[in-house]
Amino acid sequence: MPEINPKRLMQDLQHLRNIGAFGSGVIRPAFSPADMEARLWLCNRMSEAGLEASIDGMGNVLGRSRNPGKKILLGSHTDTQPQGGWLDGALGVIYGIEVARACAETPETAHYGIDVASWSDEEGTYMGILGSSSFCGTLNHDDFNKAVDHLTGVSLQQAIRAAGLAGIPPFRLDKSNYLAYLEAHIEQGPHLEAQELLLGVVTAIVGLRTFKLSFTGEQNHAGTTPMAYRKDAANALIKLAHALDLEFSSLAHPHTVWTIGHIRLDPGSHSVVPGRAEMLLQFRDTDEALLDKLQDKASSLVQRFCEQGPVAVQLEPVYPHQKSALMSDKVQTCLAAAAQLHAPGRWTSMPSGASHDAQALASHLPTGMLFIPSIRGISHSILEDSKEEDIIRGCRALASATAAILKER
Ligand code: HGY
Ligand code: MN
Ligand code: MN
After folding, report:
1. What atom of ligand 1 comes closest to residue 354's alpha carbon?
2. Distance CA 107, CA 402 (A)
3. 289-314 burial, b for 16+ CB within 10 Å, e for fewer?
């Protein structure tokens, strides 16, 4: 069985953490200088691990084994949220490099073929799971052409050009190359820690939908405009947000989540009745039919608000919908055996409340995911962290699962 090198694993994770470091977290949004610095470093580390590594025109880093025969693809992402944690995505990419090195250093597994990927823009600075969708050939070109960073207004195409990637051909999946895609990731939620479990084998990944709601009223004086005369965009936003919360609560399943993660009031002065307002609404569940119901509910609420007035409301999708994905039963069985080996009786099967690149790969390759616990379940925050022994155990379990699948080929 390949034996990973825990010291080397932690050193690489810490090195990556220092690229774009921000307090205990990381700021490395897609195509930023820090993101590209990290990708170049990954290329070198993959080459040192004996892989043929390069970056494609979508920013994907891919390290390919020179060994003949069917391979395993390991990967995740190294771009982050505007303020992210040091392990979200990075864990699975560095695990991949470490598993490739461990197999190469172990005589009975040295002939195994392991490719390693860091997909670009998983976090959706421009478009969620951009790089992995491009790799699978499922990137919608209209979505690609209109993708923009909603915080800066920079287009995806401008960002790719500024990163020096324009014109480089994108990598494309050749299914005949691979037996499976495995992605290790932090859980980013509280369940493993709360149950004192050490590993999670993912059964399914949530689908997610993100909408912008725009409110158009009338900017006016906050002192002289009587309440009955107002067309207050902020007031309409607050009322609609509350109505959504009540209606979604009545439709939700146990794991359904919804978030209003961004609100903007215009002009944003304390003495002005806002004439315009906007908010971003995102909802997630593994059941696409329920997501349809939530979407219909949001549309009917918007229509009702428009009919009642006095503020006009518009609902428009932003970012392409990310469909829910089931993980391969066969790969789950293999990951479960590895979890039982490395955490006997202290692992569970579970859905993922976070989206992942694995949901792009799942309809093209047998795909599975392995979770390690997140301390206090925190993620998408600089406070995100995991215990070192859990990080090391997770890499050992991924190495076991990878070797077991390759042994069977
Ligand atoms: O939002 C997510 O679930 C992922 O971390 N991008
Ligand atoms: Mn992630
Ligand atoms: Mn994330």
Report:
1. 3
2. 15
3. ebbeebbebbeebbeebeeeeebebe
Residue 281 near residue 240 (C-beta atoms within 8 A) = no
Output the CA 225–ligand 1 centroid distance in Å: 43
**What atom in ligand 1 is closest to the CA of residue 124?**
6
Residues 119 and 169 both lie in one domain: yes
Q: Whose CA is nearest to atom 4 of ligand 1?
A: 355
Structural domain containing residue 155: 6-205+325-407
Number of folded domains that form the chain: 2
134 within 8 A of 147, measured Cβ to Cβ: no
| 105 plus 249 within the same structural domain | no
**Is the same domain home to 150 and 217?**
no
Q: What is the pLDDT of residue 216?
A: 98
Domain boundary among 259, 294, 317: 317
Q: Residue 221 forms beta bridges with which residues?
A: 272
Residues with CB under 6 A from ligand 1: 122-123, 354-355
pLDDT by residue (tens digit) across 340-384?
999 999 999 999 999 999 999 999 999 999 999 999 999 999 999
Q: Which DSSP letter does residue 128 get?
A: B
Could you tell me how far CA 262 lies from the centroid of its own chain? 18
- Tell whether pTM > 0.85: yes
| Ligand nearest to the Cα of 128, by number | 1
State which of 317, 345, 368 marks the end of a domain: 317
Residue 1 lies in a domain: no
Residues 29 and 69 in one domain: yes
Distance (Å, whole) CA 371 – CA 199: 6
CA distance 186 to 373: 6
311 and 215 co-located in one domain:
yes
List of E strands, 187-248: 199-205, 207-216, 220-221
Please give the C-alpha separations between residue 75 and each of 78, 119, 315, 356, 370, in angstroms, as whole numbers: 10, 7, 35, 11, 12
